[in-house]
Amino acid sequence: MNIIQLQHDSQLGYPARTNLPMLSRHAIDAARKTPLITFRDAAEIKPAKIYAKLNAGKRISDFPKGDLSFCGIESDSPLAPLILWDAAHYLPIGASITLLDDFGQPCFLEREYFHKAFTVEKRDSQQVILRKTAPLLAEQDAGLTRWSFCIPTGPGDATGLNAVVKRILELDIPEKEILLCGRPDKTFQYFDKVRIVGEDIPAPPVWITRKKNVLAREARFENLCILHDRVFLPLNFMEAVRKFGDYYPFAAFQSLWFDDLLNLIPVRYSDYGCASESHMANAVIAAKGNKVSLFAASLFPEIEKQNFKNGNPLRNHPGSYLTGSLYITKRQVWLHTPQDEDLFWAEFEDIEHAKRCEQEGIPHRIIPGAFTQSLFARPILYAAGYSSYFTASGSIQLTRKTVPLPARLLKPLIKVPESEANKRLARFSSKYCTDGFARFSNEPDSLTKIISVIYASEFPFRKSAICEFIDDVERDVLCDQLGYGAKQWLTEQFIQHRSHAKINFGRHFKEITFQFAQRPHGRRFYQSILDYFPQRGWKVKLGTLLSAWRLARMNGDFLYHPDGWRGYYQAILASTPFLDYTEVTS
Amino acid sequence: MIPVVISASAYESNSAACLKYINELIRVRPELRAGLLLDQQFLHSHAGSSATEALPVQMVRISDWIDASQQPLTVEIRCTAVNFSKDTAVLLDARHFDTHIVAGVLHQVSHAWFRLSAWQPAFILVADDFHSPQLARELSGTFYIQSLSTSRQAIRSESANMYMHIFFHRWLGFGRLSRAARSMHIFSQKLKRYVYKYFS
Questions:
Q1: Average pLDDT by stretches of 10, chain A with 586 residues
Q2: pTM of the model
Q3: Is B148–A501 a contact, with Cβ atoms under 8 angstroms apart?
Q4: What are chain A's domains?
Q5: Domain total of chain B
Q6: Which ipTM did the prediction report?
Q7: Are B3 and B121 in contact (CB under 8 A)?
Q8: Per the CB < 8 Å rule, is B110 touching A448?
Q9: Residue of chain B whose Cα is closest to the Cα of A440
Q10: Are strands A272-274 and A309-310 parallel, antiparallel or unpaired?
């Protein structure tokens, strides 16, 4: 009797074997012929093998060769898509998978991704038998030695991009190429080490979806690492990927952002999110000609209400998605499910992509064992230093990153030079205030200056003018992105309260409050882009040690590293973008 | 669009002069957003206006925009707004009507003009002398979000209040605790003002 029992990691709160039904008689009969993989217990029969503490960070790659049977796998575990993905990819061609006692129709392996590789051989009320007739797309791109690093970028200071490329060049990979989509600024120092594609893609708005698709099409190697030009990869990139294994779906590392230069204030930043399903259902499919996009532009404020949270790397949430900063995937898989080019940057293109992947049977998941760090961060993504996340048990918790450090030890909040921010405010005031900026220029306090300018502004009570005013506030006053909901709220305020809306604007404009709550004593903007890069030294090591200790105390809840605090310490240091990465090396 | 109120007496005594002056204003200061008031006294002081011709206007009576119970006819106002030519100024004759009725109509007017992509060069309201100053203020807010005239001290106090909120957000988060602290702070401010008002 060849029964392989899977057991959930108890901290996930997923059904324990004692809470699941016993194996049915026909399942036990099936186990006499083929290895049976299940979370359920068989009365009096001992399993031949047990995979204990299973979570989304672990993969099963040593399935028995040949036919496999699964019993109740989709009914019993939210990890089923991950387990079935691995089983389907490690299954030899000609072998079959039998799914017993799963009543969800169609089953996971009948989704679009598996169509060409699996044929349904038999289906009745108790079982579905699928036979593998061809290799799956991820199998066609087998191997971990050849990598294409794809970076959508554009003009603007290339200091960050230099650091990102320098790190990629350092990685120990037998064959690699670096592709940039868009021509970087002249300050970019590695023109001879990269291939530039997609220079004809128009901007603005940033057509990030087309850029990523073009990069995937142009890539020569089978392993794709599509990363934003602010994502600093870990030095142990290959080690973590090798440990994770081949045939991965869409994957990414957990991402950190340190708010300070001592690695003392870790924030989880844009890696793996989760959107609640109930609201997702509101985002109806909008057909555009013969193409179908999941999200229509008019739905953005509704989609935003989903109250996105950081997903837990150990859980497989419904509605979870990689946030688009980093995708590690196989080239064929990306080409099979590219991003929707009807959407632009910050139009929830990542969520739409994940939703479509989920429907097609391609999971999004986290590779444990390494972290990336973000070189820059947008304050909109962590309101007032607080962000909510799913713990390992599935409950929602709030984390805060506020540590009273002097401003000189903090990184700048917004990636805009201070001189440029002042210019923008002056431009705003000369456009909207009858007496221009002169009246406010001697005001020493930034917040008072902002309030004065907003109070003194005048504009027509016309829809287009109000929208333009709000866009100008976003670009010139806030210097950061405003949410769709916030824009809608501000428009409504102006329609309802006219001039007096500006009082509410000052008092209840969360985005401004949040910015100043994070940087009450300055450093909202940078003096030099190098302000973002910490210097090597014992101080950073000490800060990293303290952060590693704090993070290890809630390992699995906030972030996950299989090697505990030592793993955290090494992973953080291996992904810290030190100042020397901005210097050129020949 | 320049919002202008002409008092009934000025309009009745010399409407051509009023319209000439507005025409001149459109030529020289088309960006003017404040509600202007032209009254008899103003006409006397600007007797020698240099404008050569009076402003052509498309006139509408307020009685066409209200029903028997003196409530604004929203649909009527919106239809007229769409059909008005964008090159000629609009003149709304609101003589012999109370401020609150005119204000109600102006509120609907602002919503009717809200979605229009182009506006006329001027919107002229003719109102009774007694009501015209108040209606001038009303009209200025009909088409424009006006600046809030607040003293520097008031703005500093507003800024201090915001810093207090920021302090609560920073240290207490944005949950119930922070909201409670904010409410207590607002209450203490009110109490302070009350004590200052009645006991100083």
A1: 88 89 84 88 84 92 89 91 94 92 80 92 87 94 94 91 95 94 92 93 89 96 95 95 94 93 90 72 47 66 77 89 94 94 87 89 94 90 75 85 79 92 92 76 84 90 92 92 86 88 77 84 88 94 94 91 94 95 73
A2: 0.87
A3: no
A4: 3-135 (3.40.50), 140-378+387-406+561-577 (3.90.550.10), 418-525 (no CATH)
A5: 2
A6: 0.85
A7: no
A8: no
A9: B152
A10: antiparallel
